[in-house]
Amino acid sequence: MKKLKAFWLRQSIATRLTALMALMLVLVCALWTWFAWTKASYEIRQDGYSVAGSISVRLENLLRGLGYDPEHMPEADTDAYWKLKSDLAMYSSNDQPYLLRYFPTVPNKNTSKVVTIRSPFIFEDANGLHDNLTYYRVDLSGFSEADLRAIQEHMQHVPPDWQGNSPYMTAYGMYIQNQTDYFVPNRIVSCTDGQSWSAELPVEEQVTKKFYFRSLFDSEEDMEHYFEAIRYLDAMEANFDQENYSGEELKRLDTGNFFFSIGSISYGLGTVLSAYVIDWTEEMGNFFYNFPYLVLGLCLLLLYLFYKGVRRAAVYPLYATTRQAQHVAHLEFDQFHPDTARGDEIGQLNRALRDMAGDLHARWDSERDLEDKRQQFVAAASHDLKTPLALIGGYAEAIAQDISPEENARYLAAIEQETGRMNELVREMLDYTRLDRTDELQNRKTVDLTALTRSLLEEYAPLFENRRLTSDIADGVRIRGDGTLLRRAFGCLLENAAKYSPDGGRISVTLKQAQNALLTVENDCEPIPEEELSRLFEMFYRGDKARSRAGGHGLGLTITRKILALHGLACRAENTKTGVRFTVSAQ
Fold first, then answer.
1. Separation of alpha carbons 527 and 517, rounded Å
2. Residue 212: phi, psi to the nearest 5?
3. 582's torsion region: left (phi>0), alpha (psi -120 to 50) or beta?
């Protein structure tokens, strides 16, 4: 079972759907065939009953057309009787046996005067009875079932003579010339071995005819059907005459291969007992002629069209989606063009793939930017750490030599100073790394920016000595955020303003509740080149003048921008007529 399931899952969608479609077609065809077979059986039965029931009407019309008087029908074994039988033989068929019962004079209840005419059993010689090359219809209804079976057997096993001619039989009986040549044999003799068969109802042997062998019945099945119908007619006649035939006997004889009816001919002519012999195989074959081939051809055509439709509607678009997914897997975003206009499930899949590719592209770009920043960070950090490490190494090497106590103390103080600078740089680097990995603030609360700014101005008052500080701090300015981080960001702006302002220079600090300018820090200094203004917030970026005057590490403004971004704020720098202005506003 597991192997079958694995094999099934390895097949393509079109193959699996086509297999399911084939199964459904088989079920539909089976139901349709069952329904059609049932309907055909019903219609064939109705046709059989109709044919059997119409024999009496046909005989009545035939008798009227031939001019027979209903009140004066011929008595048995008279010339008129044999002429009537020959007339009826003109329009009879072996698969429609019947019994015509009538009274030759005035109808009465005296059954001894009932005349019964059996339907003829016609044998037609394919070559004709070769007496002046005349074509005859031979009526063998006077022979018993056993004799007919024996004649059938004899015909099938007699080979041609030594000259290749077909053997013949000699028939002795009565010849009636009517609309056709009608011959009723009384005795039949084989020319090969002299075997003879005699009729149960003897007739006068007036003439002798020869006819060549041919099978009486087309098949064994046709022969059995005919004799079943004859036996059933005999039983019905006996039951009609109230002989010893019960309903159970009739049921036993009714094998379902023929249909029976009783019809009364008007004008007192009598009664017709008829049976219509039917070959179910032939009738069903005619009804379902070429049915299996048509169904098979139609199913194959439908399966082919279904297979092609599934491939066009689902498989080919899935192939295209797979190729687009491979572009995403190989990070070939410029070649990624999914079909998002479709309104079906494949369109939904393509749109989901597009969204996924967009997120992946953004993350890929972000990762590349982060990798670039990381490389810049490492390069800049290495550059800033290399100098103090070299100095520390040089001082340590000098101390290791035998130097004076004064130089030793001076070198130790220098080592301590460089170590402090390295500790500060490492702390700033850790702070930046931690903030750069933070997408949002964890703990937010209302921060009083008015109190925070005034506290910073008092704290940094020593930095503003020898400088002209002016401030305009509005009351009640509040914001939700992290007070510690905001204090560091605002302090960095104030510290930079103090560092880069010359002695006697002006520093202006403004705080107000405004979206376009929440905090403004302006100081007098030499203007910054325009091409460097946009780079002030990059990691480790310092202009030559700033480096020479302040000796910062180049991370302060970068950390400030990150802190403000976490609070939904932005910071920009611009030159003024007398210096530089930093403005904090809403993003």
1. 21
2. -90, 155
3. beta
Residue pLDDT tens, the chain, 587 long: 677 767 655 666 667 777 777 877 777 777 777 776 676 666 666 665 566 666 777 777 777 777 777 667 788 888 888 888 888 887 777 777 888 887 775 444 444 577 888 888 888 765 544 444 456 688 888 899 999 999 888 887 777 665 556 678 888 998 887 666 788 999 999 888 888 999 988 888 888 888 776 778 878 888 888 888 888 788 877 777 665 545 565 565 565 555 666 666 665 567 777 777 666 666 666 666 666 777 777 778 887 877 777 777 777 778 888 888 888 888 787 888 888 887 777 778 888 888 888 888 888 877 777 777 677 666 666 666 676 777 777 777 777 777 777 777 877 887 777 777 777 667 766 666 666 666 667 778 888 999 999 988 888 888 888 888 898 999 988 988 888 888 888 888 888 888 888 888 899 999 998 878 889 999 988 888 888 887 787 766 665 444 444 555 567 788 888 888 888 899 888 998 888 999 999 87
Q: Is 380 helix (H, G, I), strand (E, B) or coil?
A: helix
What one-letter code names the amino acid at 527? Answer: P
**Residue among 60, 71, 77 at smallest CA distance from 104:** 71
Residues 6 or more apart in contact with residue 503 via CB below 8 angstroms: 466, 467
Phi-psi region of 208 (alpha: psi -120 to 50; beta: other; left: phi over 0): beta
**Are residues 542 and 415 in contact, defined by beta-carbon separation less than 8 angstroms?**
no
**Amino acid residing at 437:** R
Q: Position 23: which residue type? A: L
Inter-helix orientation angle 13-65/291-310, to 10°? 150
Residue of 460, 464, 419, 438 whose CA lies nearest to 565: 438
Contact by Cβ (8 Å): 220, 234: no
Rg of the chain's alpha carbons, rounded to an integer?
60
Token output for 314: 């689902």
- Which 3-state string (H, E, C) describes 49-61? HHHHHHHHHHHHH
Inter-residue contact 336 to 357 (CB < 8 Å): yes
Quick one: how far is CA 22 from the chain centroid? Answer: 11
Q: Where are the beta strands (DSSP E) in 27-90?
A: none
Predicted TM-score of the model (pTM): 0.44
Looking at 437-482, list the stretches that DSSP marks H as alpha helix, in order from N- to C-terminal side: 449-459
The DSSP line for 543-580 is: -HHHHHHT---S-HHHHHHHHHHHTTEEEEEEE-SSEE
Phi, psi angles (nearest 5°) of residue 551: 70, 30
DSSP structure string for 264-297: EETTTTEEEEEEEE--HHHHHHHHTTTHHHHHHH
Q: What are phi and psi of 373, to 5 degrees?
A: -65, -40
Distance from C-alpha of 448 to C-alpha of 264, rounded to nearest angstrom: 121
Q: State the DSSP H helix or E strand holding residue 436, giving kind and residue range, or none if neither.
A: helix 405-436
Q: How far apart are CA 444 and CA 155, in angstroms?
A: 116
For residue 134, give the 3-state DSSP assignment: strand
